[in-house]
Amino acid sequence: MYMGFTIAQLLLLSLISDSMKTEFDAILAKKIFSKDDIVALLSTTDENDVGKLFEKSCSVKKEYVGSEVYLRGLLEFSNVCRKNCFYCGIRSDNKQIHRYSIPDEEIKEIVLHAWKNNYGSMVFQSGERNDAVFIEHVIDILKYSKKITNNEIGITLSCGEQSEKTYQKLFDSGAHRYLLRIETSNEALYYKIHPENETHSFKARIEALRNLKKTGFQTGTGIMIGLPFQTIEDLADDLLFFKKNDIDMVGMGPYIEHKETPMYKYRKLLMPKTERFNLTLRMIAVLRIMMKDINIAASTALQAIDNEGRVKGLKAGANVIMPNLTPSAYIEDYFLYDNKPCLHENIGKYFKLLESSIHDAGDTIAYKKWGDSKHFFTRTSAR
Ligand code: SF4
Known about the structure:
Order of helices and strands: HHHHEHEHEHEHHEHEHEHHEHHEH
CATH class: Alpha Beta
Number of domains: 1
Distance between the termini: 63 Å
Bound molecules: iron/sulfur cluster
Strand content: 5-15%
Number of helices: 16
């Protein structure tokens, strides 16, 4: 007898506990997840199982990338875009917004602010343009940003699809990471959320990702979660797509609708925002377990749904945060989706709040570090 239980009762309890180590535990213990496994992990809403999933993703994160959070100061330097993605608030057909390009002197001030405040890296993001004037402008931004920070600032670019030659020029001018979201790896769904024409070609996007890797960029991509017509199987395929393409960095956010876009008409088909949010956290957790040493961003879109969104993303397995350093005069003209949070984290007191919530999550900020993707240095696919 032990604590009042007979041996028979103890055996029964152990059988019950074994049967409670359900399929979910068995899947979680696997070294490699099949598509069905991923679907099962993503589909669970059982609190206990979700807890186990996050426990595992956090321990993988700690073991493989540590508990340092890499900071990237995000600067949305222009909202001029030649494209017309159906979900995006700054698509070229949206005439309701004021178009801007931040003057160089202001860009320099922001870069200096980031550098003096110990940011290791910047992300320069814009709408997509591929004309020579724009490319030369981006090259200038890269060169002067390096120069005024003694080459210390690390640079990620997010300026859409470009030719291989242009990627090479951008790389040679000082950028070493590039984000190009695929948005969905399902070609049929891709054409439900983009016009089907030469400017929005799925194949060209895949090719651009390949060229980024070939050029030598640490290559990032990502998707939206909770799109109309998207299934849980699509999301499982997205995670397998990242793995198959040996991606170095991933940013995934819940899809949030924007009034001035064609996709707004499907808003009634969407799952509630909290479900999109929770599913995004599970996606982060499963991805961390599948791709242990990549960088995963806790996206701003998480924060648009939950005040603690990014920190919850870190707790699920993310390790990158991108405080928005875009000046307030421009920030409201870069609304890719409605209710985008304008957090003004370039202001000291707001940054302190972010810093303390990161500490509360058990992580620390890696100041003055580029925070490169560890995966980049070990992967064997194209460099
Ligand atoms: S998602 Fe990017 S490429 Fe598409 S319209 Fe928006 S800014 Fe332009």
